Amino acid sequence: MPPKTTSSSGKAQGPSKQELEAINKYLAQRPDFDKLFNETPVETAPEIKKNSQGAKDAKGAKDEREGNMATSDHHKANLGPAIAENLPEPASKEELKKRSEELNK
Description:
With 105 residues, the chain is mainly alpha-helical. 55% of the residues lie in helices and 0% in strands.
């Protein structure tokens, strides 16, 4: 809206006819929010019951998944790194160099 102009007496003037018409048009088209809020549906008991059934199904699925997980007893079974037995003697550097030359030909 344009700024209000002051009259010769220094008092501000009210809205013009056009501004009043525009305001009235807006108010006529504005939705009735009280009516909209009162018409919103309220969740009923059967729907709540369905949700609780879904929670039970989710808990059952969780229990099934936990059955396949490792327990502390499974981890206690591994006593540490395995020490290999019957290993051949390590090769010398010269033997390793000869072998690498043969493979890289």
